[in-house]
Specification:
By secondary structure, the chain is an alpha+beta fold. It has one domain. β4 and β5 form a beta hairpin. α2 packs across α3. The longest helix is centred in the middle third of the chain and has 16 residues. The termini are far apart.
């Protein structure tokens, strides 16, 4: 180049190997997130309330499970409350399968109504996966789950005492119970 400058080439990406028209996942999301203000607003816990649309199609189930797995990988405690009576899938069992684990207590056909608290915590040189699973039954009281805020400190998450009793299992879709 005249004057001693250097030439700069502009990079352009190749054309995509796949381009298809599709619909973005349109799922309802009900969650409560808990942040630790003393540790720079770090997310420490998430309560995920399953909606009918989280369970209606395989891709929606994968999205929900992937979100929970990503939170767990970041060492966030994840509570899943599944009160959906119109779809017979267990997203906790799917989550366990996703992370390569299983829970013998679930049996061959896991019950679709449940509440569970999950977390990873360090143990020696490994990570220990822990869960507190409760099968739910229509018209029965909801459990109290541990909501782990640090490795050694949990508070009770009293599902039965939730605002206006809206977490109760009902015989109609949960989205109507939450409105």
């Amino acid at each position: 180049m005249p004057g001693g400058g250097t030439a700069t080439a502009v990079w352009a990406p190749a054309q995509p190997t796949l381009a298809v028209e599709t619909e973005a996942a349109d799922t309802d999301e009900y969650s409560v997130k808990v942040y630790d203000l003393k540790r720079g607003r770090r997310l420490v816990a998430a309560v995920e309330i399953v909606s009918p649309s989280n369970k209606d199609r395989p891709e929606h189930r994968r999205l929900f499970v992937g979100k929970c797995a990503a939170l767990l990988q970041e060492r966030v405690t994840v509570v899943v409350v599944d009160l959906v009576t119109v779809r017979d899938f267990n997203l906790y069992a799917d989550l366990l399968d996703f992370i390569g684990e299983s829970d013998p207590a679930l049996g061959e056909h896991p019950f679709p109504l449940y509440a569970v608290c999950c977390r990873f915590r360090p143990r020696n040189d490994a990570q220990l996966f822990e869960s507190w699973h409760h099968r739910l039954t229509v018209a029965q009281a909801l459990p109290t789950l541990p909501l782990w805020l640090t490795e050694n400190f949990a508070v009770p998450l009293e599902l039965e005492a939730s605002p206006n009793g809206r977490w109760r299992i009902c015989d109609y879709p949960v989205d109507r119970a939450l409105t």
